[in-house]
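Annotated sample (chain length 117).
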Amino acid sequence: MSLGLFLTMALMGLQLWELQAAFGFVAVVLALQVGVAVLYTLFVVFPAMGRDYEAAVIGAGFGGLSLGSTAAAIANIHTAITQQHGAAHRAFIIVPLVCGFVIDIANSLLIALLLWL
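Output written by the structure step:
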């Protein structure tokens, strides 16, 4: 409840016109991130996963991960694809494991390495 109250107060007090100079840069970076994520999903993830329905579902999960978080990846898999076209059991095993386990371990090791340097 406190977090919701804090975010509401912070967003209501935000003066967006002061950030106007950065909007162009943010738009360019966002467009580049979306473009790179789409190209990587189409030309690396989809072929590497086997070019089938499961690969398409894993690609949707990767898109959610690259543009958001693990929760966005699971939401992409569940709401965007499998509710309409059927279950993809392998994708529901691979994506959460990679997102939740491998990435967290890699991040913790990378942060420890950078702090050590």
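Annotation: Helices lie at 2-12, 20-48, 53-67, 70-85, 89-116.
Annotation: The CA atoms of residues 16 and 22 lie 10 Å apart.
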